[in-house]
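Build the 3D complex.
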Amino acid sequence: MAGIRGINLLSGEERILKKRAVSLRAKELGKWLVLITIFYSIFVAIVFAVGMYLSFQINSIKGKASSLEEKIKSEQKKESLELAIKERVKEIAKILGSRIEYSVLVNKILSLAPSSDVVFQEIDFSKGKIKFSGQAANLIAMNNFLDKLLEEEKNSFSYIYLDSFARIKDGSYSFSFEIDFKK
Amino acid sequence: MKGSSLSIFFLRYEKLLFLTIIVLLLVMTWSFTIPRVKVILEGQEALKREKEKVARLETKIADLESLNDYELSERANLTLKAVSGEKNIFGVLLILRDQANENQLVIKKISVNPGEISEATASATKNSGEIEFKLEIEGSVENIKEFFNKIQKSLPLMSASNLKMNFSEGNAEIDFVLKGYYLALPKILGKIDDPLPKLTSDEEKILSEISGYNSLNLQTFTPVASERRNPFSF
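Done.
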């Protein structure tokens, strides 16, 4: 079987024109391909360059950091002392803040009975509130003491409770109170 | 002749050529460009972190350099006198004895249950704590008040609690609990770029307050090289 063979019916001039058109289109296509390749290559080159610059910067700053770390390590004694001081001062602040000033409290309670007509027998701070007991020589002394206690309530006490009050054989009076200081 | 056949080839396979190039660019982008861009973005983050770290380290070095070795060592010893690194039973007992003698008080009874005192295991199990001393003391009321004042202004720091006073003819008998404190020395320093813990103004006040307290010189930190040197040593 014989193959179909194309018969060129175009005249010579037209053939040349078509060839030129084909060549122009091909050139344009080639131009685009080159442009795309160039742009992409530039983009890739930029990415590469930025990456290189960044890793150079990271390495140089890491070098700086490690030299600073070495410097800090050489000052480690100072750091450990400062840390120990800070921890201890915090603990000291807690201790100082939680201490009870017994000498002040005892003074305040004893100052309620300045004369020898009223004497204290016991002061007990061990059960949260303060308990104290004592003896008054007579009813007037007891009354004065009670007045003083109530007067002092405004400044110092948040709670006063008369636990017991009794007259004893020798004519004196025994008492016991429970009080609490204002916080 | 050759150019014209290449042009015909280009035109014949125009679409295929474009497709091939686009696929090629996509493959390159996927396998090289995107990972590289990711690396750059991560690098930027890493750079930012490193810069921040360097800034922290520089601040810390400046802080460390501003500290004076001698002053630091003095302060460290003061705080260690205030709160011992271990259970300081004898420090408390010595202060008690001295203050009782000074105030003419009679110590009738002292009892203490310090528990474990072996350094290694005690500090491993508990870093801080209290030792309780139960005491019975006798003397004049004024002297007892002075005794409490002095105890409150002594190092090692102590605090009294559960006080019970019995009065008889100007004298008083007291029983109370006295607590002594201990706090183990720090064993780890934390991260190297952690900021240096500075004392607040309140903490500075506390230090200056306790520097006026009476103290026993029982324990010291290992001396640190000092800027102050003895000019007469050769």
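The CA atoms of residues 30 and 80 of chain B lie 64 Å apart.
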